[in-house]
Design goal:
GO terms for molecular function: amino acid transmembrane transporter activity. This protein is mainly alpha-helical. It has 24 helices and 2 strands. The chain has helices spanning about 1-5, 10-20, 30-40, 45-60, 60-85, 95-100, 105-140, 150-165, 170-180, 195-210, 210-235, 255-260, 260-270, 285-315, 325-330, 335-370, 390-405, 410-435, 455-470, 470-475, 480-510, 510-525, 530-555, 555-564; strands at about 185, 190.
């Protein structure tokens, strides 16, 4: 059984399956289209909302965090690019894991990608709803509050009102109480849901359903609009910068800066979604690697510039707001620009929603071809040339939770799934180098021999912790073993992984850049809360139940092995 769990697909076999099962997809995307889709995915809810909270916690130094996270993503993007040039099919990290590590790992990655795409789209849809409601209010149009939020906000506000009184409520609690009190009722149960989040998901799903060409055109237009406004924010905001706002640069130290890891990383999620359109590219082996690197560099520069402008225009303590870009211009009295940004943010977040909604069905389509999901998921619409059934299911999977769930539940959870996928893709490149698969790659991660560098880096890291991490070491000594396992197990895994990679780098001359991708992503993972990991492990457990109940016995590789 163990051999069957880790059976691998050859590149030739995957290409053969994609040609047979995906011949109906329309090949129309070039480099410019792919870069546009990548920017559409990356420059979305992150730059228009989570960047404010990250700046509030870390101060102007969050700009360095964006550089650090972009640095981590470059190593991962190079690894994705090598896989994309080797296996140019729509499965993204799922397919790459199938080639490198076998079927069980491929399933686990495919299941984790549901978190990255479907669950992150729930966040994006809810964020879109908030901006859309604010935009309408700016034009004097009000939607009943019970139609604009998750029921948990309202019930929590009602419970808080009973404790402290309505006069002591503010912000979302005041709005939530209004929703609770004005909502229609069935048997004294208030009917509250986020209608705009559901409607935008349905609209975007319809757009994705009717064709890649229509999706590409819509994405290109929205990207041009939002990049224009972001450049206007950068160059217009420069005139309002007060250098004293950049002092202190890191008011809450490294702890404050790193507390924004999930929010900042969420802002970069999406560059890998380009790889899911591989079968709709004119020349995927040439264009996918270029597009991944181009869009990542462009977005990193935009993020760093935006962060410096925001924290220069107002003090970082003012930025804990849901619409920081619009807020800073209101703060300096430039209300016209704030209004333009409010409208543009709705367009920007719509484009991110579009790309994620485009990516998820193509993952399921590829898993279906391999027999791990029902054959319906690989059905291509004869007229629209899109994975029709998978697209409709994705619409339901995103729209229904977006109607009823709180946004903050999903953000960190999304990052966990993405880090997991990124690490396996980087590790997959090491396997490709070791097994000789890299010879088939038309693009390769630049090779720097890590034979000695990885081990020397490990020793230097230990020395730095010993001399400069005395407070951290003291905290650990005051914890019992159960607390260490609960709160710091990932830190232990990080150092053990680094040690193991040091040994194997010495023995096998591992390429340095994929190793750095693994270590940086694993370090960023260790900064996320333990509760997110518990939920993620439960998610993986549920996925394994589905795999062993259906995927294992229906796998094409299993049927081929049984036939022999």
């Amino acid at each position: 059984m163990a051999n069957r769990l880790f059976r691998k697909k050859s590149v030739e076999q995957i290409m053969r399956d994609s040609e047979h099962g995906g011949s109906g997809l329309a090949k129309i995307l070039g480099v410019r289209d792919l870069v546009s889709l990548g920017i559409a995915a990356i420059v979305g809810a992150g730059i228009f909302s989570t960047i404010g909270l990250a700046s509030f916690n870390g101060g102007p130094a969050v700009s360095l965090l964006f550089v650090f996270v972009a640095f981590a993503c470059v190593f991962t993007a190079l690894s994705y690019a090598q896989f994309a040039s080797t296996v140019p099919v729509s499965g993204s990290a799922y397919t790459y894991a199938y080639v490198a590590f076998g079927e069980l790992f491929a399933w686990i990655i495919g299941w984790a990608l549901v978190l990255e795409y479907a669950v992150s789209n729930m966040v994006v849809a809810i964020s879109w709803s908030q901006y859309f409601v604010s935009m309408l209010e700016g034009f004097g149009i009000s939607i009943p509050k019970w139609l604009t939020m998750a029921p948990a906000y309202a019930t929590e506000a009602h419970a808080k009102m009973l404790e402290v009184g309505a006069a002591n409520l503010s912000g979302i609690d005041r709005i939530g109480l209004q929703a609770y009190e004005t909502a229609p009722r069935i048997a004294d149960f208030p009917i509250i849901f986020d209608l705009p989040a559901g409607l935008i998901t349905v609209f975007v799903t319809w757009l994705v359903y009717i064709g890649i060409k229509e999706s590409q055109r819509a994405s290109n237009i929205m990207v041009m609009i939002k990049i224009g406004v972001i450049l206007a924010v950068i160059f217009g905001g420069m005139f309002f910068i007060k250098p004293e706002n950049w002092t202190p640069f890191a008011p809450n130290g490294m702890e404050g800066v790193l507390s924004g890891v999930a929010a900042v990383f969420f802002a970069f999620i999406g560059f890998d979604s380009i790889s899911t359109t591989a079968e709709e590219c004119k020349n995927p082996q040439r264009d996918l690697p270029k597009a991944m690197i181009y869009c990542l560099v462009i977005c990193a520069v935009l993020y760093v510039a935006i962060t410096l402008v925001l924290t220069g225009m107002v003090n970082y303590t003012e930025l804990n707001v849901k619409d920081p870009l619009a807020y800073v211009f209101q703060y300096v009295g430039f209300d016209q620009m704030a209004g333009i940004i409010s409208v543009t943010s709705v367009i920007a977040i719509t484009s991110a929603l579009l790309v994620f909604q485009l990516a998820q069905p193509r993952i399921w389509m590829t898993m279906s071809r391999d027999g791990l999901l029902s054959k319906r998921f690989s059905k291509i619409h004869p007229k629209y040339k899109t994975p029709s059934y998978a697209t409709i299911v994705t619409g339901f999977v995103v729209a229904i939770p977006a109607l009823f769930m709180k946004m903050d539940f999903f953000v960190d959870l999304t990052s966990v799934g993405t880090f997991f996928a990124f690490i396996l893709v980087c590790a997959g490149v090491l396997y490709m180098d070791y097994s000789g698969l890299s010879k088939k790659s038309k693009f390769k991660v630049p090779y720097i021999n890590g034979k000695y560098i990885v081990g020397i880096g490990f020793i230097v890291g230990i020395i730095l912790v010993y001399f400069y991490g005395s407070e951290t070491v003291a905290d650990w000594t005051n914890m019992d073993s159960s607390q260490i396992i609960l709160h710091h197990s990932l830190v232990i895994i990080f150092w053990l992984t680094w040690l193991i990679l040091s040994i194997y780098s010495y023995k096998l001359n591992f390429s340095l850049l994929p190793v750095m991708g693994i270590l940086i992503n694993l370090y960023l993972m260790s900064e996320l809360g333990a509760s997110n990991w518990i939920i993620f492990l439960l998610w993986l457990a549920a996925g394994l139940v589905i795999y062993f109940a259906y995927g294992y016995k229906n796998s094409k590789l299993n049927k081929e092995a049984t036939a022999e």
